[in-house]
Predict the 3D structure of the following.
Amino acid sequence: MSTRFYALPVEQTRWDVPSGATTVFNWEYDETRDRLLSLYEKGKEKQWNTNARLDWTIDVDPGSGKNAPDYYIPIYGSEMWDRLDRKGRRELRHHMAAWLNSQFLHGEQGALICAAKIVQTVPDIDSKFYAATQVMDEARHVETYSRYLREKVELAYPINRHLKALLNDVVNDERWDMTNLGMQVLIEGLALAAFSMIRDYSEEPLAKALNTYVMQDEARHVAFGRLALREFYPQLTEAERAEREEFVVYACYLMRDRFLAEEVWENLGFDRKECLEYVESSEMMQAFRRMLFSRIVPTIKDLGLWGPKVQQAYRDMGVLDFQDLDPDELSAADEELARDMDRRRGAGRDEETATAALAGVDSARAREVEQAIRDGGDG
């Protein structure tokens, strides 16, 4: 994507992050686990082509209020929002859509790099198999969000400084489990919750479909992260576990601040301090930011990284109650919604073709949802 689409200057077109990771070869090709091999099979079978599965002929108005509810704009309800005329609100919606989807795009490139790194560094051959399918998934996601920004939004923003700092830490760490924890569980966990806001509340059909299908892939990625880490973390020493918990606390505070959208306020001439003060005190925005942790908290608890510092951090952020959610049920719901969207797409064909297509989709994906639950839920 050319830098001419960016709303702000891009400091550098290439970001080099040094990494001293050790490459692990494994000659034990028969040392595999059924649950990870099952995920690997799904990863192979469920590859899709963004150019074929999504309808790119849909017209998108990036300034429309149908793209997402206005109450998700951080300054909604403030005096600053009330002072905006119709043109000003359209411009702000456009820039918020550009900013949010840009962060999705940059985060997906981070996931692409991390998945490739996991292939290189993870010691188990079955984990390498599955991570290889995720590399293709993430490449597709980068392609998809890039095309949406270029062709539909026609505007982009550079990577947010909080996301950049976290990606720098994750990519820099040579330990495969820290790459997995930082990307699969934390960064993608937050992204899943943000994707779901668009999937569930947007009236823009292309964005709704795009995020639904991306979330279907991400459900497998989170299941992979949980399986690999849940088997590895019981082997850690107390000091090693404490280090991971410290990282979880640090990363979650960084990600909470990632959605302040400082760049947008400064670029459009708002008073940055006034905007941030409103966001910090707004009950609606506090609720929105809490919801973004709905995918992370139950997964962290499931992994056993649940010491006093982690619980206190989540209590301070007002997200501790999410510990009672079931990660398997959330993943299964993501799968089901994507399946339902395919069903509705098929209904637009002639009856015989639609019936045959839906039968194949239903039978194949029903098995995938059931197996995904077992893969992520077996203790």
User: Anything to note?
Assistant: DSSP finds 16 helices and no strands in the chain.
